[in-house]
Amino acid sequence: SPGQINTRKFKFDEQQRESPLSKYLGWLLVMIIVTSSLGLAAAYWLSHHFSKPLVALKEGFNALSDGKLGTKIVPEGVAEMQKTMDSFNSMSERLKALSDIEQKYQQQQQLVELGDVAKGIAHSLRNPINTIGLSIDQLFSSNVTEKDKQQLHENVRQKIAAIDKTVKAFLSLTTTGIKRDQTVVANSVIQDI
Length: 193
Description:
mainly alpha; rod-shaped
């Protein structure tokens, strides 16, 4: 009958009606979800905002450890992070300057060593040349016997051979095609020295 349908509708409508407590809990749940979403978005933004400069700083240190001295990074983030990044940049510049100074020092050290080698070679050449000069002077003197001339001539040849040996030894330092795996007679090396 029609009256029963309305009663059933009324009872059904009454069950669908929400109480103030359930409305409050529904709004509270929506607010918690919205607030949590906003909080997560803010946390993500903050973590990205703070981690981006840290990642840049880490990459800068990796570049330094790979030997890329003078590496610079763009200061960003909060003031303390920018100061840290500025400090990194100045440290990197100082390391580059120190590396340049060290390289110049090594070049100067090589020049000093080359000077020492040149002094040794000059000394090795000067003595035989001096002996050759004295022998030539004696050859042209009038009171030298034929036997002495032969002895002086042999002495000049030996000194020229010594000069030639010194020049060849010096040139062998610069040659790339030298076989360094050959056996060497120790007595010859000692005599050369």
